[in-house]
Design brief:
The structure is a single chain. This protein has about 290 residues and is an alpha/beta fold. The chain folds into 2 domains: about 240 residues, 3-Layer(bba) Sandwich (Glucose Oxidase, domain 1); about 35 residues, no CATH class. The chain has 7 helices and 15 strands. The strands form 4 sheets. It has a 9-stranded mixed sheet. Strands 2-3 form a two-stranded antiparallel ribbon. Strands 5-6 form a two-stranded antiparallel sheet. Helix 6 links the parallel strand 11 and strand 12. Helix 4 packs across helix 5. The longest helix is centred in the middle third of the chain and has 11 residues. The radius of gyration is 20 Å and the shape is globular. It starts with about 20 loop residues before the first helix and ends with a strand.
Length: about 290
């Protein structure tokens, strides 16, 4: 398999495609702000958030609360406080896949050995803490608008259709952009219903390669895996392999994109920052669009 971005930014690089976001990209993105409207693109995090069967759900514990004071806890000077602890999988809800999240042929992005990811040491290379804050031009490619409704499960989005979505939005992906793909998958989930994480619309490798060749710094979507599920016959997470491992493009999954579409936004200031969790394979975050 080709390794298009390996060594592009040096043998020790662990950042990948976000290296393409320079000061000029930041200035351009800031110039897009017109109304000052700020939109969060993240799902609310709670124990009710659906997760695939192989992952634990979110657990939220109160360490100090009003009940402690009702039971007689001291209140020096009348002061009271609450605090809590959250335990959650890092690939939950709206989250970033770090470059150590997926690999093949025993090598991560830039040729680092897969053996550098271990339970005892976590990820020694390409962990979430290596991902810089992302401030750049965001583009919304709205397949829901293009097709006239949410895409059905297992609908594959190829290069031609993604390019058509870009033309429909009157935008063209370029170096340093964050491209966000709306499929309607998240919107189609009925509240409280069991979510099928094995079938979803998403991009195929031809669409992924077009984005990577355009120089994008990030690819996000409103679905679980960015790519179409089930995978094409004979493949396993082929888009993850191509974008993360070969091109060094991080993925932002589980985004809430309907408000962005309803605001009529196609190009905007995009801001996102992973938690600097040392050795982590991903990070929950709250990506923001400023219109």
């Amino acid at each position: 398999m080709a390794k298009e971005a390996w060594q592009r930014w040096g043998a020790e690089d662990e950042v990948g495609a976000p290296n393409l976001i320079g000061r000029e990209q930041v200035r351009l993105a800031a110039s897009l702000v017109r109304t000052g409207q700020v939109l969060s693109l993240a799902q609310p995090l709670s124990a009710a958030l659906p997760v695939p069967a192989h992952r634990a759900g979110l657990q939220h514990f109160m360490g100090r609360d009003g009940g402690d004071y009702a039971a007689g806890a001291k209140r020096p000077g009348g002061f009271q406080f609450a605090e809590d602890t959250v335990v959650l999988p890092l690939h939950l809800g709206t989250h970033l896949d770090a470059l150590c999240h997926a690999w093949c042929e025993d090598h991560l992005y830039n040729g680092f050995p897969g053996a550098t990811v271990r339970s005892t040491t976590r990820a020694l290379r390409c962990g979430a803490e290596k991902m810089p804050p992302l401030v750049t031009r965001g583009l919304l490619l709205d397949l829901v608008a293009l097709r006239g409704g949410p895409l059905p499960g297992d609908a594959s989005i190829g290069r031609d259709e993604l390019q058509a979505a870009a033309r429909h939005a009157c935008v063209e992906p370029r170096e340093g952009d964050a491209v966000l793909i709306r499929t309607g998958w998240l919107e189609a989930q009925a509240p409280g219903a069991t979510v099928d994480f094995t079938r979803e619309p998403g991009i195929d490798t031809s669409a992924a390669e077009w984005l990577a060749e355009s120089g994008v710094a990030l690819v996000g979507a409103d679905n679980f895996a960015i790519e179409v599920l089930p995978f094409p016959a004979g493949t396993v997470f082929p888009v993850h392999q191509r974008l993360i491992r070969d091109y060094g493009v991080p993925l932002l999954e589980g985004m809430v994109l309907r408000p962005l579409a309803e605001a009529g936004a196609s190009a905007f200031l995009f801001v996102a920052a992973a938690l600097p969790l040392v050795g982590a394979t991903g990070s929950p975050l709250n990506p923001v669009a400023v219109l």
